[in-house]
Amino acid sequence: MDLKEKISIEEFDGKRFKIKLVEPEEINHRKAVITHYLHNLENGIAKHYKESALKYIDEFLDFKKNEFNLSLVADEAIQYLLFESQNIPFPPQDKYKFKFIDLFAGIGGFRLAMQNLGGKCVFTSEWDKEAQKTYRANFGDVPFGDITKRRNKEVYKLN
């Protein structure tokens, strides 16, 4: 890949992107969908996030192309984002015994315990913005926001 600029999930926080495309609450939701999709590519859970994640990535790339005249494609962006989401202190185990969700996640103590027991986290929710930042740094997932919000409840129903 010969890009002048790396693509990062943090770029979704950019003021220009927020103003032009979506509101801040929507940005966090999009980041959560994308990171949950990337972390579940290998286990079948990604199918629940795929359609929305690819749509959000395409919208962001369209914005980047117009704003900075970059010739990015979704596959390249996903590779950058995948690398970023895998370079974390507490990655999930390759082979897992069970799947779990992490509601009221805080900074990830419950997730760390479950991962150590062989679990794979497939959904995370935390409303506190500072805790979300720490969780993202620890595990690479941006937690979905307030679980009482309709949008987050709909994602939570993974079947």
Describe the model.
By secondary structure, the protein is mainly alpha-helical. The chain has one domain. The protein is built from seven helices and two strands. The protein has helices at 15-20, 24-39, 47-68, 74-86, 109-116, 129-139, 150-156, and strands at 98-102, 119-124. It has a two-stranded parallel sheet with strand order 1-2. Helix 2 packs across helix 3 (47-68). The N and C termini lie far apart (36 Å). The mean pLDDT is 76.
Structural class: mainly alpha
Give the C-alpha Rg.
15 Å
User: What's the overall geometry?
Assistant: globular
Strand order of the largest sheet: 1-2
Whole-number mean pLDDT: 76
Q: Write the element-wise H/E pattern from the N-terminal end onward.
A: HHHHEHEHH
Task: Give a brief rundown of this model.
With 159 residues, the protein is mostly helical.
List keywords for this structure.
single chain; 159 residues; mainly alpha; two-stranded parallel sheet; 2 strands
Which helices and strands appear, and what pairs or packs with what?
Layout (H helix, E strand, L loop, with lengths): L14 H6 L3 H16 L7 H22 L5 H13 L11 E5 L6 H8 L2 E6 L4 H11 L10 H7 L3
Parallel strand pairs: 1-2
